[in-house]
Amino acid sequence: MNKTLLGYVPEKSLIYAVHPFVKLFFLLVVSLFPMFVSAPDWNIILMLVIVLLMWVSRVNMSTLKIYIPVAISMGTIILISYTVLGGTHPEFELVAKVWGVNIYWERIRDAIIVYFRVLPMIFTMVFFLSTSRERDIIVSMRSVRIPFVVTYITAMALRAAGMVLEDFQIVRQAEQARGFDPVGKSIAYKIRQYVMYMVPLFALSLRRSEEFTNALVARGYAFTGEATKVKRADYILTHYSYKYFDYIFIFLVSVSFIALLVLRYGYGYFSVDQSWLIDLLRNALSVRGG
Amino acid sequence: MSEVIKITDYSWKYINTKTPAVESINLTVEEGAFIGIIGPNGSGKTTLAYSMDGLIPGQYNGIKKGTVEVFGKEVEEYDRGELQKLVGVVFSDPEAQFTAMTVEDELVFGMENIGLSVPEIQERLDWVTELTDLKNLLEKPPYEISGGQKQRVALAAVLAMMPKILILDEPTSMLDPISRMRIFDVLAKLKKEKNSTIIVIEHSLENLIPLADRMVMMSDGELVLEDETQAFFQKTGFLFEKGAFPPGLIQFFYELNQRNLYNGDYPLTVAEASLKLNEMIKKGK
Amino acid sequence: MEENINYIQVTNLDYEYPDGTQALKGINLEIGKGEFIALIGQNGSGKTTLSKCLNGLYKPTRGDIIVDGLNSKKSSIVQMVRRVGYVFQNPDHQLFNSNCWDEIAYGPHNIELTEPEVVERVEEALKVVGLPKIYHKEHPFFLSKGLRQRVAIASILALRPQVIIVDEPTTGQDMKQSLEIMDFLKALNEELGHTIIIITHDMPIVAKYAKRVIAMGQARVVADGATREVFAQSEVLKETFLAPPQITQLAQSVADLGFDPGTLTVEEIINQFNSLTN
């Protein structure tokens, strides 16, 4: 099993053969797709395609279960903000009145459109993070010639995050070793106690940061000035080469995007009026609230 | 034999402290020497080490008096990054030194910083992984290797830059005995193969003594003793007084000496001690 | 004759991490009150895991740990930590408060003692560790490592556990500081009757302070007995990649001349030398 940023991928997965840049390209371009697609039906299909890709890459699908509560709470928040907090328009169709608040059809419709735009974007990100090791992210950034400082800071952030997570486990155990038992206590108590994690984590980071900086300097690295003008050999990139299928993937993704734009702006596809899901929903609500 | 480091009447006081961390230090280090620096915590060993690499005054604020010359040039006169090509430092915390996402990245980082080309990097990478026995760990990320392995990576990463002077600040204090031994094995190999100057600050004297040509003792910010290793440890009483604790063997023979039962050189290894004991017992019977 | 009921009884203990690695295999141990034990072994041999099983942080995968009559599988962590205290290797991991007084009060507050009881415990712990008054309201972050360790130990003492496990008390300390902390643990043991278990690699320290040594290797206990006896078994120690202190090694190398292979200190070897040359 190889550990990626969001979970484990088995040793023998197709995703390793793909050049990290392709994965980054996929993430950046495909997350733009939903921005041009209003009809939720299409966005749902996109989501399913991504899930399928995850399955093909042999990502551990049970890790996706973690995102279900996130998806639900996010959907609820979007729905409430749009229906309760959104404005009104004289031509809006009233669907129901809940606790004195007017619920308009248009607001529900807009909430659904937005929700199914955001979801695929998140899924694309999850797909990227589930199939990339930290090194892949750095390599993909270097291969598009992002300045070394940026990639290095990203790498350090990832490393720091890793160290903080390790420390977090130990600090939690240390709290328990001092009799900390949140079972059966008030929420305020629990929150106050969890805030206490910050103190040791902070202290540890502070202590480490001095040695960390010294280690960087001792390796000849400086963030500005003369040192950044050194031509870096980018040795790590020599391990990765583009294969024919990398070019095919890049081509496919680019072509899909262009096709999407053409269909959308040239032929008016993907609009809300054509969405059968929206129609379905509208009829259902009209029957009830009409 | 040229002088690679020359410290003259050097004092350093960190800002916000009342007394200088080190005072009136005079020290000369010859090329190719293996120097051990000992002393209680707070005696100024780390300050001395950092001064030789330009970390002081580069990274720290304070007041400097006297001179610290490396290869004939004051440390502040070097351009950023120049001195680091000549002097490498390994610190005590294996966690804090691992800055990259895989072992290979870590080893290559320093080499890229000094502008080496891909073939040069490849060559040095092979050499250093052979020397420190890291070939199987190249792909591993930091959270999958032990503290001892991380420290070997730190050492290898610095060695890959091929510094002329190598300084190690308590490199094994956080390691278990086996990992400790492996670090010293690498240092022993280095001493044999290359003519690098090596300076090691340590509390673990048992491993250090067989390798060190000369020893330095720091106490309360001052350099109180500097000598060839054997002569250094003959002054056992003085070392105790100043807060150092020589290893068991030396303590034993010092005790014998104090009771007028022994008059020669104190043994530096178990093997030497064993021989001497054999002689003495057989003579005494 | 009164039977010495062991304070800690470990029977057939196995522990497996969630990812499947077996950290402890078939551990059997009996620990009585008032012992001073050194737990030694290579990194990864299971010492820390064993300690965390003893204080209830980890529950055994198989086997039983009975502390003061309580089975760790059936007791809450809070019940266990009041009997077995564990001081982490790095004091920074366990200092949660902005001043030392509150830090030591943290434990007693957690177990819901009344305010007067908390004050009593804190005062007591501060006195025992001998923390100078000027530091009581200081932030632990700014103290030296030695003092931070004392605060950490005091904060465990405030829970009044019988057993105190200290993980690597001497790492990163110079000899004088190491002796100070060890003398302090010795006083806790001899004057206050606590059972002390230290996890360490520092063999001279083990030779000087520990009465009993438990050596671990590859998830098992490979040696368990009086310090002298365990150190004399050089073959066993080699298996765990440990070596006894230099003095012991020397004595073993000249054992044929009449030296005791279990020699622990410089005084002992001098006495033997004298008797062999007179």
Give your account of this protein's structure:
The complex is a heterotrimer of chains A (290), B (285) and C (278). Chain A is mostly helical. Chain A folds into 2 domains: 180 residues, no CATH class; 86 residues, no CATH class. Chain A is built from 10 helices and 4 strands, in the order E-E-H-H-H-E-E-H-H-H-H-H-H-H. In chain A, strand 3 and strand 4 form a beta hairpin. In chain A, helix 2 runs parallel beside helix 4. Chain A is globular. Chain B contains 13 helices and 10 strands. Chain C is an alpha/beta fold. In chain C, 38% of the residues lie in helices and 22% in strands. Chain C has 11 helices and 10 strands. The longest helix of chain C has 16 residues. The termini of chain C are far apart. The chains are: A mainly alpha (290), B alpha/beta (285), C alpha/beta (278). Chains in contact: A-B, A-C, B-C.
Query: Which percent range fits the helix content of chain B?
Result: 40-55%
User: How much of the residues of chain B is beta strand, in percent?
Assistant: 15-25%
The largest beta-sheet of chain B arranges its strands as 6-7-8-3-9-10
Return the structural class of chain C: alpha/beta
Would you tell me the structural class of the helices and strands of chain B?
Answer: alpha/beta
N-to-C series of helices and strands of chain C: EEEHEEHEHHHEHEHEEHHHH
Ends apart, CA distance between termini of chain B: 48 Å
Distance between the termini of chain C: 44 Å
Number of strands of chain B: 10
Strand content of chain C: 15-25%
Instruction: Write the H/E string of chain B, N to C.
Output: EEEHHEEHEHHHHEHEHEEHHHH
Q: Enumerate the strands of the largest sheet of chain C in spatial order, edge to edge or round the barrel.
A: 6-7-8-3-9-10
Radius of gyration of chain C, CA atoms, in whole angstroms: 20 Å
